[in-house]
Every structure is written in structure tokens, then in C-alpha cells.
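Predict the 3D structure for this chain.
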Amino acid sequence: MNNKKNAAIITRFFATTWLLTLILLVVSLLWEIGLGQIAQIGLIVFLLLSAIVFYAGGFFYIEVEADKSSFKIKHYNLFPFWQEYKIYQIATDRYSKYQVKKSFAGMFSWLYLFEQTSRGLAKYPAIGISALSSSQLKTLTDYLETIKKNP
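Done. Predicted structure below.
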């Protein structure tokens, strides 16, 4: 399972938003098009806020591969800078549970995976799942639920 199609749509949406806002801002600074200083400041704030939302909102590309003994979750942030490709490989017999945490009224979502180790329960760093569709999220959580270790 992967969210390649959704990831491309979200990346295109943010790129188009930034480009159009930046073009409007530059044109308004170079020529008089009727935008006042307050509108220009608003464009700058909008540009910065949309960059922050895109970077910190949990918009990740996710790919899940499973076999009989383990599963891998490959992921990276869709923000075009500071992308770090990571792979979490967890043996199914050591996998314990998962948590989905939502923020900003469910607009942003994060997945936490837990693995049972010899020293106790280990929590993996969060994986942003905001770029998953509801059906993809259901598929992922259904899979994680089926392999979950029952205490």
C-alpha cells in the first residue's frame, strides 16, 4: 500500500498555492495593481503559514510492505526541503500496538508504532498520515490491527 497519488495531489496543491501567491506578491511589489500594503503583508503571512502547515502538518509519503515475519513502513515528509527518507522495519512478533493522534480538529494526523523489546515498550517517532485518504487510513489501521499482539 502507498499514497503516491494523494501525495502528488497534495504536493501539487501546495506548490501551486505558493507559486500563485508568490507571483501575486512580486507583481504587486513591482507594479501598482491595486493591492495595498496590508494585502501584501497578508500575502507574506499566508505564504509563511502555508509553508509551516505543509512542513509540520504531517503530510508524508508512506509505503507499507509486509511479509510473514515483518513489515516495513517507508516514509518521508512531502515538504520539498529537508526530506529524510526513513524505513521502520518491525518484526510482527515484536509489534505491540499503534496509536493515531489527530490535531487541529482532525486536520492533521500522526501514527505512532510500538514495539515490545527486552527493555520494555519502545515507541517509534511519529509518521505523518495527513496525506492518506480515509480508505487508505482504514486499510493501514486494519492491517496494523490484524497483526497486533494481544496481551
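The chain has a mean pLDDT of 90.
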